[in-house]
Amino acid sequence: QLRPVLDWRTVTLVTIDFTVLAVLDMVRLLQSSCCLSTVDFNNNFTNRKPALYHGVRQVSVPVKELWIPDISVHEIAGENSLPRSHLVSVSHLGQVEQIQPHLLVSSCPLDLHHFPLDRHTCNLTFGSLAHTFRPKLKIWLSTVTLIPSSFSRSFSQGEWELVSLTVPGPTSSILSKSPSNTSTVRVQVTVRRRPLLYLVTLLLPSSFLLLLDGLAFLIPPYYKQRLSVKTTIFTGHFIFIFMVFSLFPPFRGQLPLI
């Protein structure tokens, strides 16, 4: 289970291809997203000549038979419930590739001040907890892919829409040294809420009740029904807000503008 290098001073470069399929849900301080990652690195002990093996250039090997870098997401807040792949692909040049689906539940601070037109940016930091710079394990982010919205809808019909995936800083600074003396790489996932549900069920009825409240001022003051109409509208608006309050996400600190 040691690093597969001929010289311990050799740097093991781990390449990650990261694809986000959809953001399934965001509750309190947690984000649930469906992702796909490909980990690629070189194993110096699996080089072979295809001519000696009937021209076979690539084989599938059980994961337990090879050393695999322990790449994890630092913001992880739950276990991956998707079935894990038990095979890795090994080429005749010693290149090992592991494709793994993920159902990531990660921590993400939510700012609900502009609810329901809010937008959030969550960080996903990839790194190794066991290997530091002394054993020369470095992580490089090869590609970050955002699935088109038309394809993403087949995974999620919820209220969250995936906007963008970015890597902060220039390409030369992707490879960084964290305070724990490990190689890390960070991806920023930006999502926004689809406000149609809240516009139809909350803002439109509230606007209609406020319009009725304003029209009630047109009733002459000497009509006795004016006070009862105003009271009825106010009571109806209060009951309506109380009934739809369950649609609001839990928040703390600053109140939403709505």
Automatic annotation (TrEMBL):
Subcellular location: Membrane
GO-annotated biological processes: chemical synaptic transmission; monoatomic ion transmembrane transport; regulation of membrane potential
Family, as annotated: Belongs to the ligand-gated ion channel (TC 1.A.9) family.
GO molecular-function terms, A-Z: excitatory extracellular ligand-gated monoatomic ion channel activity; serotonin-gated monoatomic cation channel activity; transmitter-gated monoatomic ion channel activity involved in regulation of postsynaptic membrane potential
Domain of life: Eukaryota
Domain spans labelled Neurotransmitter-gated ion-channel ligand-binding: 2-195
Membrane-spanning ranges: 196-219, 231-251
Keywords in alphabetical order: Ion channel, Ion transport, Membrane, Transmembrane, Transmembrane helix, Transport
Name assigned to this protein: Neurotransmitter-gated ion-channel ligand-binding domain-containing protein
Coiled coil: none
Entry membrane topology: Multi-pass membrane protein
Annotated GO CC locations: neuron projection; plasma membrane; postsynapse; synapse; transmembrane transporter complex
Primary location recorded for the protein, binned into one broad class: membrane
Source organism (scientific name): Lepisosteus oculatus
Keyword Transmembrane recorded: yes
